[in-house]
Amino acid sequence: xIAPADLDDGTIELTGRIRIASNATFLAKIxxxxxxxxxxxxxxxxxxFPDGNLASREAAAYLVSESxxxxxxxxxxxxxxxxGRGMVQLWQDADPAQDAVDLVSAHAVPEAxxxxxxxxxDEKGRPVxxxxxxxxxxxxxxxxxxxVNNADRKGDHILAMAxxxxxxxxxxxxxxxxxxxxxxxxxxxxxxxxADELAxxxxxxxxxxxxxxxxxxxxxxxxxxAALAARCARLRSDARFPxxxxxxxxxxxxxx
Length: 256
Known about the structure:
Blueprint: H1 5-9, E1 12-17, E2 26-30, E3 33-39, H2 54-68, E4 76-79, E5 86-90, E6 101-105, E7 114-121, E8 127-133, H3 136-148, E9 158-160, E10 166-168, H4 195-208, H5 211-216, H6 222-238
Antiparallel strand pairs: 1-2, 2-3, 3-5, 4-5, 6-8, 7-8, 9-10
């Protein structure tokens, strides 16, 4: 979780604010490196996540991502800044020409390369379909989301990089001990996990028994860490993408 010394000790210079974010979120620079800075002091209380803070969960999500070995979450760490301690994450330049998740006319769903999630109607009553690409990079993100119990995987929380990689961001509402999974990535529901995906889960489980588990005690509660280990064990045993369950919505709102 410790960034290179020049990023951990360098001055955070605020350059802008992301106004559409529900919590205080700033664009900043450390030297010549662009980052996102989210101070804990700017977080809004959440009734269903009353304990801990969003910044710590974001840092924990990065550590779990590193244990998977898939680079889902960009480098993320906690440090002091101009508005107090908070989360800092390396800025990623996504490719504006690519959309890993899309909402299209029900009559224009691509025939191949995409997975169907749900159907609905737009503001004019026209039928639309939520789809996402069928790619190994996005599958890994979906597995990651199950393990960290991501309650807010919106379409715009997926950054499509020019080289085909997919980064996931905004992981402040993760790791709840109760089932909270809300995601737009339901297209593989019931599909078997690949050998690579199972191996990734095994790495997280192994690391939880060692250094990862020890480090997470500074960021999450004991109950949340135990639930994380249990989700890994359950997903590994089932060896397939789970289905939604419980009374809560299966997708976040808004979708993007």
